[in-house]
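Input.
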Amino acid sequence: MRMKPRLVASFGVGCILGLGGTVGLVGAATAAPVSTASFNFSVSLSGLTSSPVTVTGTGHADKTNDEVSLSVDLPAAVAALIPGGAASPEVVNAVLAQGTVYVDVPSLQSSVGAPWISVTLPTKSASGVSGILSKVASALGDVDSIVGFAQSHHATVTPLPTSTIDGVTATGNQIVATHRRATITATLWADSSDQLVQADVTASVAAKKKTIGVTATINLSGYGDPVTIVVPPLSQVKAIPFSTVASFLGTAFHHGHHATTH
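Output.
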């Protein structure tokens, strides 16, 4: 079974996004949603490539304006999968603002002709992103609701002793859930205001011929602090139609699907 490079890269991005989704598992959080936050994360993948790969990054989120900025450090093994990329580490930056996604991929700049690529989301997609950000913002400030949601869906929840996480006194809960061939373990640490301080997630998925493993950690801080998310100037941006990106991703998925089934 040979994994296509695009599929590997897509899976890595998916895991990063999935980590954010794990934080916002519950859609019924009742506490006031957080307005801003800063975060850093680390995601390690095993089973997809010959050796484990770790991706790290930092970012800021502003729910009031539906804006997010992200800087991701790609190791050489992942950077080499980018079209035109070299087998050396690379830093990729991304910004979501006003329904448009901006991405800065250094190895693509010569072929694109600009430092940044922009994709304006369709109205329906932009509204969907806003809705997701709202749910995550609510969950970040109401960790008890995430724990309650997990219990109501038959996950095993174990309270943990109080600990100091990133200099903050925090209470923790370990959540273990099994779904078909996947087992997910998440440890959530919350401060005295029930805001998420740290989430640790491990998951293993049994494929036909191998087991894919994911280990991820996200740390959050600066709730309510001012954040500045800078949109790149138009002179540095090459706009790409959403339809072109959708077509590319569809082709990548189609090729990756055949790679895993043949």
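Confidence is low (pLDDT under 50) at residues 1-29, 251-262.
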